[in-house]
Amino acid sequence: MLMGHPVLLRNLLDQYEALSSLNAAEGSPAARRRYADVVYNLCIATGTRELHAALAIARRRFPAPRADGHRSPDSGPPLTA
Fold first, then answer.
1. pLDDT score of 14
2. How confident is the model over 29-41, as pLDDT tens digits?
3. Are 47 and 2 spatial neighbours (Cβ–Cβ below 8 Å)?
4. C-alpha angle with apex 61: 9 to 72, nearest 5 degrees?
5. What residues in the chain have per-residue pLDDT under 70?
6. What pLDDT score does 79 carry?
7. List of residues 6+ apart from 59 with CB closer than 8 A
8. N or C: which end of the chain has fewer CB within 10 A?
């Protein structure tokens, strides 16, 4: 399966999490549109058609940092801008 570039995928996941924490799906028309765009692009980047599947794939690729602040061994190299 083709997978979006890691930097793109991490960016989309970060945007989704930020918009979700702001409850953008219930916000202004502009916020709802941005949320819908991020969800759509996350699905495209992961080769899925459903948000839950896209999130599962993206989160498997980029697990949350451990409590001690270190990355898990299987999370790949750190992303830099």
1. 93
2. 999 999 999 999 9
3. yes
4. 125
5. 1-2, 64-81
6. 46
7. 13
8. C
| C-alpha 72 chain-centroid distance | 18
pLDDT of residue 80: 46
Question: Interior CA angle at 41 toward 38 and 45, to 5°?
Answer: 135
Signed CA dihedral, 62, 67, 72, 78: sign only: positive
Distance separating alpha carbons of residues 15 and 39, to the nearest angstrom: 9
> Are 71 and 65 a contacting pair, CB within 8 Å?
yes
Q: Which two tokens stand for residue 26?
A: 């219930």
Q: What does the DSSP 8-state code read for residue 31?
A: H
Task: State the Cα–Cα distance between residues 61 and 36, nearest whole angstrom.
Answer: 22
Count of CB atoms within 10 A of residue 50's CB? Answer: 11
Helix ranges restricted to H, 2-46: 6-21, 29-46
